[in-house]
Structure formats: C-alpha cells, structure tokens
Amino acid sequence: MDLLPRFKKCQWGIEVALASSKAGQLLEPVVKLKIYFQDEDEPVEMRMSMEQFGDFRMKTAQALKSVSEIEQNKIMQQPRPI
Predict the structure, then answer these.
(1) What torsion, rounded to 10 degrees, do the Cα atoms 7, 11, 14, 18 define?
(2) Which of 7, 32, 48, 77 could tie 52 with a disulfide, CB 3.0–4.6 Å?
(3) Cβ contacts of residue 50 below 8 Å, gap of 6+?
(4) Closest residue by Cα to residue 30 from 53, 9, 58
(5) pLDDT digits 0-9 by tens, 30-73
C-alpha cells in the first residue's frame, strides 16, 4: 500500500472570460488543471488565478523536494511483514 497517491497524468489550460456578469472577472486569466491519479476514476479539477497558480507551483515544488528527501533518507519505510 502506497502512502502517497501515484500521479498518472495532468491536463491544463488557461481560460479568459470575454463576457461575465461580474466586471472584475473580464479578461482575467484563470488556470484550469485536471490531475489524474492511478487509483482514482475521476480527475481532481482545480481553477485558480495566475497569482494562485504561481503559489501552487512553488508549494508543489517544495512538497516534492521534501518527499524526495524523505525517500532518499528512508525516513518512511514500508512495514516489514512479521
């Protein structure tokens, strides 16, 4: 059993609203992500502003670095069968 979900694939795109009932949303780019995992049937879908996407990228990179360090140092190991 894996402790972390296994990445399968990702789809992304940028959406710009040309018409909206909210004036603040016009021409404001939105990043759309669909992330698929090995054991899940449905993708995880996210929508975020360009600023939020920048923060997401930074935090994701930090998390991946931490996971890599944990794996290299074998801090978290699969329990051995008795």
Answers:
(1) -130
(2) 48
(3) 29, 31
(4) 53
(5) 999 999 999 888 999 999 999 999 999 999 999 989 988 888 88
